[in-house]
């Protein structure tokens, strides 16, 4: 695993340095008044850049609505410290509002034991990070274990099970959304369309990487999924402000459509979002079946 970002332009290097410092500083604040030993002695063991900025194939076209996110894995010393709301929300918010960080930053937080367990199982997500990731911060004694690749037959069995389960859940959510639209329960329809999109991304990510983040942030799911297959980009147009506004309506629906009186969505927006989610579902099915066919051939099943 590398420990330099020399392949990135200076602006991106500076943004990553700043984001890492904010994460470390805010974690120190979050644990500073602790009394429990696991919290008082809590440590960030490693911060790893993964995804397109680690591999070197990022996209940076904000004027067209296409801009790769920074994806960061934070490895901590205790499972309780992985709670985003408790220990990482303030840092995420500060990074989001920092005028000197121009690109979105996504974080996932796990223990070293969780990461190494995934590597021992040969889960693609962790194997890819071990191969391509770049260490931005490292505490001595925090080494990753040697990956143990899955056999093709085991990979096929896992992926096909995920696909059967989650593709059915996507269709269930779309059916419920249609019922809500028919009954003009627009906020309920928006929430359920969010769930359909989240389930579609979950299906794809589990099939392709055996991992989904502990999140309901649709933009984070979209970023992780599109990073693995650019064909998924077509589901959500980005060219116009209206396109981008509609994706934001879908993203916000998980919380606001249920709890905010200010959330307002009309029939035209719902139909456009439903069309996007339907295309997403269909594309996920296509690319997932292609992946499964490849695994089946490798396994000679």
In N-to-C order, the SSE pattern is HHEHEEEHHEHHEHHHHH
Q: Compute the gyration radius: what is it?
A: 20 Å
Helix content: 55-70%
Structure classification: alpha+beta
Strand order of the largest sheet: 5-4-1-6
Strand composition percent: 5-15%
Extract low-pLDDT stretches.
none
**CA(first)-CA(last) distance:** 34 Å
Please summarize the sheet with the most strands. 4 strands, mixed
**Quick check: average pLDDT?**
95
Number of strands: 6
> How many helical elements?
12
Shape: globular
Structure description:
The protein is α+β, with helices and mostly antiparallel strands. The protein contains twelve helices and six strands. It has helices at residues 10-31, 37-40, 52-55, 84-87, 89-97, 112-121, 124-132, 152-182, 186-209, 218-228, 241-259, 267-299, and strands spanning 44-50, 60-61, 66-67, 70-76, 105-111, 134-138. The strands form two sheets. A four-stranded mixed beta sheet has the order 5-4-1-6, with helices on both faces. Helix 9 runs parallel beside helix 12.
């Amino acid at each position: 695993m590398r420990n330099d970002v020399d392949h990135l332009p200076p602006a991106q290097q500076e943004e990553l340095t700043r984001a890492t410092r904010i994460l470390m500083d805010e974690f120190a604040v979050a644990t500073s008044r602790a009394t429990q030993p696991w919290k008082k002695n809590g440590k960030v063991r490693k911060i790893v850049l993964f995804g397109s900025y680690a591999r070197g194939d990022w996209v940076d076209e904000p004027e067209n609505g296409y801009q790769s996110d920074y994806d960061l894995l934070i490895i901590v010393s205790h499972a309780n410290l992985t709670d985003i709301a408790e220990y990482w929300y303030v840092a995420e918010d500060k990074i989001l509002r920092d005028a000197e960080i121009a690109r979105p930053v996504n974080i996932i937080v796990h223990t070293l034991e969780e990461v190494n367990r995934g590597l021992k199982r040969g889960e693609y997500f962790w194997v890819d990070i071990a191969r391509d990731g770049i260490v931005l911060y490292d505490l001595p004694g925090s080494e990753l274990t040697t990956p143990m690749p899955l056999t093709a037959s085991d990979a096929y069995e896992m992926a096909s099970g995920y696909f059967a389960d989650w593709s059915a859940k996507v269709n269930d959510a779309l059916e419920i959304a249609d019922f809500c639209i028919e009954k003009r329960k627009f906020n309920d329809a928006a929430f359920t369309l969010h769930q359909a999109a989240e389930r579609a991304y979950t299906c794809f990510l589990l099939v392709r990487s055996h991992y989904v983040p502990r999140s309901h942030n649709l933009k984070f799911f979209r970023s992780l999924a599109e990073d693995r297959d650019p064909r998924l980009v077509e589901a959500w147009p980005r060219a116009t402000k209206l396109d981008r506004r509609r994706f934001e309506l879908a993203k916000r629906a998980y919380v606001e459509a249920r709890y905010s009186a200010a959330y307002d969505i009309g029939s035209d927006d719902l139909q456009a979002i439903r069309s996007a989610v339907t295309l997403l579902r269909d594309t996920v099915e296509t690319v997932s079946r292609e992946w499964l066919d490849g695994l089946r051939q490798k396994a000679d099943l």
